[in-house]
Design a protein that fits this description.
The structure is a single chain. This protein is an alpha/beta fold. It is built from eight helices and eight strands, in the order βαβαβαβαβαβαβαβα. It has an eight-stranded mixed β-sheet with strand order 3-2-1-4-5-6-7-8, sandwiched between helices. The chain is globular and about 40 Å long. The termini are far apart. The relative contact order is 0.15. The model has no long low-confidence stretch (mean pLDDT 93).
Length: 198
């Protein structure tokens, strides 16, 4: 059950903050911010003025610039950093995350240089771990404001898909699942290109 979990969301940008807002309604949630002053603002003002100004964040949501503090004891890790910094962050959490704890990628894009998908990067760093990708034509500000939206979580593990659905789904935010990890990651990469072309 989501309520028994500690959730770590790594990345306090628009999307990471929005997902932390959603998960903090159901579970203890820590939001990692690279800058300590941003973490302090989230804790004291209950707002992310840099990325989601005007959106009230739950008082139960905790933020820290200490990566180890955020992931210690977490039952699920959501990585919401840009794709170009993804490998660095996942490698940095290393031994702070217990074996078997699933990692969910919500970054859109391929790794610069290698052109690897984010779950390929994750598998390279720790092939024994369960991974998922959550993606969709999501606009963080709309979701943070409670407007209706949908997304998809893809994983080879039905258990992980169910956990992510339980954690984030609400009446306003539908979370669908499938096992097409590659398709979902690549669709997330090209959606803006298609939108611009259209």
């Amino acid at each position: 059950m989501a309520g028994d979990l500690k959730v770590a969301v790594l990345g306090a940008g628009m999307w990471g903050t929005t997902l932390a807002l959603l998960s903090s309604k159901k579970a203890e949630t820590f939001l990692w911010a690279r800058r300590s002053e941003l973490a302090s603002s989230i804790n004291q003002e209950h707002e992310n003025p840099a990325y989601l100004p005007g959106i009230s964040l739950p008082r139960t949501l905790k933020s820290s610039s200490d990566l180890a503090e955020c992931v210690e004891g977490a039952g699920i890790i959501v990585v919401a950093t840009p794709s170009h910094g993804f490998r660095e962050i996942v490698a940095a959490i290393g031994n702070s995350v217990e074996p078997g704890i699933p990692i969910v990628n919500v970054a859109k894009g391929l790794e610069p240089g290698t052109q690897a998908r984010m779950t390929e990067v994750l598998s390279e760093i720790d092939p024994s771990r369960k991974y998922a990708v959550m993606t969709g034509p999501n606009l963080a500000l709309e979701i943070a404001n409670g407007q209706p939206a949908a997304t998809v979580v893809a994983s080879e593990s039905e258990e992980v898909c169910g956990l992510v659905q339980d954690l984030f789904a609400s009446q306003e935010f539908r979370v669908y699942s499938n096992d097409d990890v590659i398709g979902c990651e690549l669709a997330g990469c090209v959606k803006n290109v298609i939108a611009l072309g259209a």
